[in-house]
Amino acid sequence: ADIVVLPGDGIGPEIVSATVPVLEAVARRFGHQFRFAEHDIGGIAIDRHGEPLPAATLEAARKADAILLGAVGGPKWSDPNATVRPEQGLLAIRKALGLFANLRPVRPHPAALGASPIKSELLAGVDIVVVRELTGGIYFGDKTRSDADATDLCRYTVAEIERVVRVAAELARQRRGHLTSVDKANVLETSRLWRDVATRVVRDEFPDVALEHQLVDSMAMHLLSKPRAYDVIVTENMFGDILTDEASMLAGSLGLLASASLGAARVGIYEPIHGSAPDIAGQGVANPYATILSAAMMLRHSLGLETEAAAVEAAVHGALDAKVFTADLAAQGAAVDTARAAAAVI
Amino acid sequence: ADIVVLPGDGIGPEIVSATVPVLEAVARRFGHQFRFAEHDIGGIAIDRHGEPLPAATLEAARKADAILLGAVGGPKWSDPNATVRPEQGLLAIRKALGLFANLRPVRPHPAALGASPIKSELLAGVDIVVVRELTGGIYFGDKTRSDADATDLCRYTVAEIERVVRVAAELARQRRGHLTSVDKANVLETSRLWRDVATRVVRDEFPDVALEHQLVDSMAMHLLSKPRAYDVIVTENMFGDILTDEASMLAGSLGLLASASLGAARVGIYEPIHGSAPDIAGQGVANPYATILSAAMMLRHSLGLETEAAAVEAAVHGALDAKVFTADLAAQGAAVDTARAAAAVI
Ligand SMILES: CC(C)[C@H](C(=O)O)[C@@H](O)C(=O)O
Ligand SMILES: CC(C)[C@H](C(=O)O)[C@@H](O)C(=O)O
Predict the structure, then answer these.
(1) CA B272–ligand 2 middle distance (angstroms)
(2) Is A275 annotated as a binding residue?
(3) What is the pTM of this model?
(4) pLDDT for position A332
(5) What is the Cα–Cα distance from B304 to B322, expressed in whole angstroms?
(6) Is residue A298 part of a domain?
(7) CA of B93, closest CA in chain A: separation in Å?
């Protein structure tokens, strides 16, 4: 399999360097051949090529079986009014590859509960997957700016909603059969369309899945007060961005949250949901588990290697059980560095 | 002073009926005269007058010194595709009165910490006011719907951002001098404008206030992981809706969160941030504290009665200290009803 590696900025190169050896260990152990090719994206691509998503990167990504991504952005490129910004590379590659469904599993690990701001008794048994729509909505609508005002257009087509709801309902069917669709239908026209389409798709195509609708403001509360009540949550791009960062707090550390961005084809982007963490970049102390768990999702979703994916996940859980904690998880003093954490998984 | 009372739907009438006597007690004790006039809004207004904000209600509101509101909406009017919906009444009155700044204080009371999903040690000393922009953004932009798609336009003018940032910075100046502005400037044009305007207003007019910018997704995390780090938070309409419901979890119960919606004139709308709670409506068990604390904000902001406001707040805190808890706060079995809770405050 051909895997394109996009380290990006900040801690991106460190966590990706720690993860590639895990995939190599999988290849050795299970007799596969993975070919890795590294390309630039984000700030480093701006520095080297003048643009956040160089043509060579996109071309390699289009031909790959899967893409492993670190993180993009940093203080060096942080002026929001600059015409060229690292995040544009991330948004552009998601869009160009048609990766409309972003899966973000949230399953707090018993050994890491202490690091969560949420009371531990609420967290036992929490097992949620958020499916965030990733190539539509206000992220990609027309934008204007004048001296007097600015605008962003939020637009959703029926087809865009249908396909992401199908991915989420299919996933719910394979899990506990419960789907929560999140919108703001009491205010937004796009949300009223979202609610209608979700209702119809589930009724006609997934009669075995139980669908519930939640307003985004209530969801932001209930995610904290009764996280065990949720199985699969599906929502539009912006709401998904906010709710998954909030949900990451259930897992104790953003450093444990993996993601897969999927489309109609097999290729997907696999990346931790955390950012480039410029404050700790270059020190070799970042938590690599989210990236390693993202690589496990790659094995499952793009490479069809379920046994291998489960083995990697079990190895990460084993390392957590053994309290091999990086600084974000450890009580003061007991932390290991990135390399030691990755070695424990291998 | 002339106070317009808008009970609305669900538990609205119950919590408002419990709060008016508190204001009457204030009037007696401090020698004021409050005249109350009740009008319809929301679902009950649809039933009685065919529209969620009847002309008579708006006219009375325009002439009033302050408005006390319960809640609107309920299953009877819950079809999001209906042309007339209760929430439209709420949005319309906010807009018609120009109430652009919605203040939502979050200060967990020690006696109620047990009801919060957040670990208590993170909550001691938390004292935040969220200032939510209330009459702009995607809530009020043009909307379209066709068979194939739907759109909502998010628009902000420089003037809209300036005025709400001024309210928030002024408040920060009277408090701990720290202001956090929340946006999504790495994606939205309206957010880049928001960030530019906030930066300029604070630099030029509030050099003594420390301004920090946060992306909305990070904010959704940090609000949970380090709530003590925040003083005043200012943000646009939709982000404010989501973040304040999330922040309410810090306070243990939505039943404790008050709000004030203010504009350029003295008149304001004072309402709990919770909804109409149809599941418990009519039973007389709703928590009246959020509405009573909203009445305290009315005394302060619209009627200029700071001593009286502080007295009401102290009385609610006293009731909480004495563990006079409604069902949302009480451990099973120990709950009092709405009337008993209000009586304890009086
Ligand atoms: C960097 C940013 C554009 C991005 C997003 O908002 O999608 C990030 O927050 C994420 O969640 O992947
Ligand atoms: C009822 C709804 C329109 C309203 C809003 O979103 O503003 C409510 O959630 C609120 O926060 O006051």
Answers:
(1) 11
(2) yes
(3) 0.96
(4) 64
(5) 29
(6) yes
(7) 15
